[in-house]
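Researcher: I've been going back and forth with a colleague about how Rhodanese-like domain-containing protein might be arranged in three dimensions. Neither of us has a model we trust, so I'd like an independent prediction. The organism is Absicoccus porci, in case that matters for your notes. Sequence below.
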Amino acid sequence: MFFQRKKLDINAGIKTFRSTPNSILLDVRTRKEFVSNHIPDAINVPLDEIDTYQPENKKYFVYCQSGRRSMIAVQQLQQKGVDAVNIGGIQDYVL
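Model: Here is an independent structure prediction for Rhodanese-like domain-containing protein. You can compare it with whatever you and your colleague have in mind.
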């Protein structure tokens, strides 16, 4: 039997982010997508820049539009030894 890591629901993920000291909310969508709409307190590092991004020693809560790019970004960050979790897509975010 194979097990997959469960991603957090974006709304639960934001709640956890807000209660986690020294954490970062990371939006991996394009800069254009980020400028048009993003979750407050998020920083933007597009997925195609993740490989050169120098992460801080903090917990990362990662999102994109639907959850696909954030899944890839989390895998890349974890390969660097970063504590990162995929919280899915902004399309499911409820204020």
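Researcher: What would you highlight for our discussion?
Model: I'd start with this: Strands lie at 23-27, 42-44, 59-64, 84-89. After that, consider the following. The longest helix spans residues 68-79.
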